[in-house]
Amino acid sequence: MKLPSVLYADGIKKGRQVQFGGLNHNLGAADGELWDMRNLTSDYFPLLATRPQRLFYRKLEGTPGGIFSWDGLAWVDGTGFYFKGERRGTVTEGQKTFAALGAYIVIFPDKAWYNTLTGEFGTLEAAWSGSSLTFANGKLYEEDAEANCIQAAGVNWEDYFKAGDAVTIEGCTKHPENNKTPIIREIDGDKLYFYEYIFTLDGEDGVTPYTETGSLTVKRIVPDLLYVCENENRLWGCDKTTIYASKLGDIFNWNVYDGLDTDSYSVDTGSAGSFTGCTSYLGYPIFFKEEHIYKVYGSIPSNFEVMGSATLGVAEGSAGSLAIAGEILFYLSRAGVMAYSGGIPQPVGAAFGTERQKDAVAGSDGLKYYISMRGADGAWRLHVYDAQRGLWHTEDETHATHFARQDGNLYMLTDQGEIWMEGNIQDPPEGVTPEGAVAWMAEFGDFTDDDPNKKGVSKIQIRLELDEGATVEVYLQFDTDGQWQRVNGALGEGVKRSYYLPIIPRRGDHYRMRLQGVGGCRIYSLVREFYSGSELKSTKGRQ
After folding, report:
1. 543: how many CB neighbours lie within 10 A of its CB?
2. Which class for 113: exposed (0-12), middle (13-18), buried (19 or more C-beta within 10 A)?
3. Torsion angles phi and psi, residue 210, rounded to 5
């Protein structure tokens, strides 16, 4: 009697992973998404790959103050300001804010400047002090003028100021109304000439010269700017409450109000809180508070208009997180990393889950956003956002203090005073040295294989390519018991191939997988063989 054939089935199923995304540190991460990682990159997406080696540029000897790029790499090492590897001037120790206009690099809070063409170094402010200052009649454009001159015998005013500077006069007691900030029109030795009748003189007609005595000063003042940037041939900056703009093309003058298109500019804002950062983006100076963003429209002081919106701005202490990648401005807010394209900022930090970071500093190589920030546990980590693919990857525990992009390469200054070249490096300068073999790790989220029942994994097939001398190890953890079980010996033959790894089956609700190694590695696919069981709990002696 012929019996019907019976289908044979071993119940073994396969789960394939051929596309590896970025970080997803959320409890609801899908099968195979990366819960945690170290030193991975999106460069070879959809492959899972290790980041390229960094190049060591130099070690600073003193306290690292920052790096900046403008026709060459500049940095502050202790009290020294360096440009293209040579010391050019002296500043105070501490963290610096940089900006540039034309050939000038400016350094705050020192209010210092360096000219990249002439090699000159100096301070933005200038001041004369003395005990005697004569207010008198003078000249203006080769014509006699009245009540427009101050004179300090024996002083060469050109050592302090230039025509067009706005200078603040203080210390007048006989005529306190002469304590003001007029604009110098001409300089003639020890005489400064201004517009007529700018001063009050003695006599009934007010044109009789007189001399003020006491503690007198004449100075050119620059605001105490916390944050500064360049936009449309002006320097823009802010203190806690006020936005400032320099005179057009002039980094030295911030108080010139002459009724001209080239004037300086300042405005107070009415919202609560202090400014937390500023930058130039899409042709506009943009200023941030934690709960507001202000954009300055217009091209000249008479039509400058500050428009504010109540939305998430830069978090306090994270002004350095402002950086442009893929033509999008990114920064850290109190709610996480935001992407700003000129309208309403959008959050892009969902990959970090509920964790909140602070004290961020960031840079960009043009397409990727590198951000070093401190987590809730106090630890620093360097993360990278790929603006093209929308993926986050974590590198390591580097605490960066400044970033700068020079000749297409991204430079990173660490809190240890080390300057590294980061990312995909093109035409590195002479003398740099690569770091050692990179240690890396990829921990996947829970695998449930779309099955709420018990299941067991029996084999793993992994196809990868290793650099010469590199190694990989595979670990499994079942039911979040905290015990990582090594699946294999180190894999490392320096070729592209598949490995078939048998596993002692263990029954459980879910399992996790961790890959870790040292050296360059690219993983093309990951196949898991598993069998599905019932909803019964595991019991002693029965896996």
Report:
1. 14
2. buried
3. -150, 170
* Interstrand relation of 328-333 and 336-340 (parallel, antiparallel or unpaired): antiparallel
Q: Which two tokens stand for residue 85?
A: 């590897």
pLDDT, one tens digit per residue, over 122-134 is 999 999 999 999 9
Distance of alpha carbon 518 from alpha carbon 497, whole angstroms:
18
pLDDT in tens, 11-26: 677 778 888 989 999 8
Tokens in use for 232? Answer: 């449309």
User: What is the spatial distance between Cα 107 and Cα 328, in angstroms, rounded to a whole number?
Assistant: 26
Cα gap 222→108, rounded to integer Å: 11
Question: Looking at the domain covering 227-434, what would its CATH class be?
Answer: mainly beta
The dihedral sign for the CA sequence 82, 86, 91, 94: positive
For residue 2, give Cα distances in angstroms to 5, 7.
Answer: 9, 15
Q: Does 203 score more than 60 pLDDT?
A: yes
Domain ranges of the chain: 12-53+440-532, 126-220, 227-434
- Beta bridge partners, 304, equal none
> Angle at the Cα of 295 (from 289 to 296), degrees rounded to 5?
125
Q: Which of 415, 401, 413, 417 is nearest to 360 (CA)?
A: 401
Helix, strand, coil shares of the chain, percent, nearest 5, are 5, 50, 50
User: In Å, what is the CA distance from 50 to each residue of 92, 112, 138, 464, 497?
Assistant: 40, 42, 73, 12, 17
Domain covering 126-220: architecture: Beta Barrel (2.40)
SS3 459: strand
Per the DSSP assignment, residues forming a β-bridge with 362 are: 371
The amino acid sitting at 260 is L
Residue 87 is encoded by which pair of tokens? 């010391």
Give residue for tokens 């990278």: 384
Buried b (16+ CB within 10 A) or exposed e, 240-256: eeebbbbbbebbbbbbb
Could you confirm whether domain 12-53+440-532 is CATH 1.10.10.10? no
Please tell me the least confidently modeled range out of 35-39, 88-92, 405-409, 524-528.
524-528
HEC secondary structure over 285-321: EEEEECCCEEEEECCCHHHCEEEEECCCCCCCCCHHH
Range from 8-17, 106-115, 241-250, 491-500 carrying the lowest mean pLDDT: 8-17
